[in-house]
Amino acid sequence: MASTASPIQALLSGPHSTFVSQGAEAKVYKSLLAATDFPTLLLRLEADNGENNVPIKLSKSDLKQARSVLGPSGLPSAESGERVPVFLKHRFTKGYRHPSLDGSLTKARVAGEAKAILKCSRAGVNVPGLRLIDAPAGILGLEWIEGNSVRRLLPDDSPEEDEHQLASETALQPTLSLEDYGLSIPGLMALIGAEIAKMHLADVIHGDLTTSNMMLRKHAGSTTSKPAQLILIDFGLSYVSGLVEDKAVDLYVLERAFASTHPEPENEIFDKDFNPEEANEEISPAVKSTLFTTMLAAYEKKVGEKQWAAIGKRLDDVRLRGRKRSMVG
Q1: By its UniProt entry, which InterPro entries does this protein fall under (predicted)?
Q2: Reduced to 3 states, what is the DSSP secondary structure of residue 18?
């Protein structure tokens, strides 16, 4: 007897969903949902709260927040016929794995990503809002971010290969420039540093910090002082840890990503008369004007002197281990 698809599964093949891209782990869709769709889908969100061995526990406050976001009061009225875009990530079945193992891994990874996003959201980190979750089916629905990845906005020296970048930056969304967002490169680095610091203060380790997994979007009715918002995305490899080592490794991954993806000489990244005030943060003029070091200055300011002393020292140790590994192969 064939199993009946859940309401969220049915979205993937529905008339208002568009297939965007496929990576090694998941397929990405953009789905346009009407306000009347959400009450039914919320039932699925609540039904998965602790049932079917789903390893995620949504608190009452989480469900209340979901209702406030997803309910008709926060969406276009049913009578208007308008639809809201949702980012759907479907972790499809892996034929090379035993079905029971595949099912348990898929549920755990979807739930883990959702929990990391919720934890970040509670801590004030800019992340996509959680919209839908069907862990048994491997589907996570997130707020659709109208914007561009940081990778697209900086000088890029490598081919793009990230599923989320493809998902958000096809013909569905035109690529803007940093100037369109009212930002300079130093200002962008300050936003990145502050956001990663907030995430680490919440003891969330991203696990895949690259410029492909950061997006910029314009503030609604933005002013020149706060022209754009930096959003961290793709928490598929994230986990919770308060260890200094894990936070240092997270930063080292980003440093390597900058070196490989944006290897521009300093004088091509910043003007010689670089003014730290452009970064919208108080960055010490003594900091060398490179992408990563400018980002670290904002990170240091946000986490505080005490935490940075430990993380910075461990980052130096991680770098040393990385260089040794590169030399010996």
Answers
A1: Kinase-like_dom_sf (IPR011009), Tyr_kinase_AS (IPR008266)
A2: strand
44 near 57, Cβ under 8 Å? no
Alpha-carbon distance of 40 to 188, in angstroms, equals 40
Residues with a catalytic annotation lie at: 208
Q: What is the pLDDT of residues 278-290, one digit of tens each?
A: 544 444 443 344 8
Residue 82, helix vs strand vs coil: coil
Q: By three-state DSSP, how is residue 19 classified?
A: strand
Question: Two tokens at 184?
Answer: 């300079």
8-35 per-position pLDDT tens digit: 788 888 888 899 988 888 999 999 887 6
- Do residues 93 and 6 touch, judged by C-beta distance below 8 A? no
* pTM for the predicted model, two decimal places: 0.78
| Domains in the chain: boundaries | 7-143, 148-323
| Superfamily per CATH, domain 148-323 | Transferase(Phosphotransferase) domain 1 (1.10.510.10)
Confidence band of 47 (pLDDT split at 50, 70, 90): very low
**CA distance from start to end of the chain:** 53
Amino acid identity for residue 134 in this structure = D
